[in-house]
Amino acid sequence: MLQPRAVDRPYVKDYDALPGEHPQDWAARFAPGWGFFAARGRGERVGGATVALGAHEAALLDGRDDLALLWDIRVAPEARGQGIGAGLFAAAETWARERGCRRLKVETQNINVPACRFYARQGCVLGAIDRLAYPALPDEVQLAWYKDLAAG
After folding, report:
1. pTM passes above 0.85
2. What is the pLDDT at residue 79?
3. Is 146 in a helix, a strand, or coil?
4. Whole-angstrom Cα distance, residue 146 to residue 140?
């Protein structure tokens, strides 16, 4: 079982600052069949999720056509703790299931403890650990979480 531990200096990472990883850069990666979800509150967008489906991201989809990948999920800091993330996750699950997917995969890193806790609360199980996934970031470990969708 994964256990968080205190560190001397908290690790803060801005994923959007990495080359090609800002949502504005994703258009070049989109493929037919991707799903996009938005959460709104008080007339403003407070969250969103993106689900990848199809051969375009074959490496992350393990070469399977019955697997969907939760590419991104985020909730504005001021809107967290209100169930918005859980609602977006549920929408992604339903969307993937309706397209014949049997599993939903989510990739995160060991440094993102809140995300790990969130995925566990959503019923995901840790299915793979890759310590060598990020050669440029040797202190980060890739964690792959999975949720079985077959049961509905």
Report:
1. no
2. 93
3. strand
4. 19
Decide: 104 and 127 in contact? Cβ < 8 Å.
no
Q: What is the DSSP code (8-state) at residue 134?
A: -
Whether 83 has a pLDDT exceeding 90, the answer reads yes
Task: Provide the token pair at 2.
Answer: 């994964």
Laid out side by side, the sheet with 142-148 consists of: 35-41, 44-52, 67-75, 103-109, 142-148, 125-130
DSSP 111: T
CA distance 133 to 142: 6
Mean pLDDT of the region 121-144: 94
Residue 71: which of 100, 29, 32, 125 has the closest Cα?
29
Query: Please, are residues 80 and 46 in contact by the beta-carbon 8 Å criterion?
Result: no
Taking the alpha carbons at both ends of the chain, their separation in whole angstroms is 26
Model confidence band, residue 65 (pLDDT cutoffs 50, 70, 90): confident
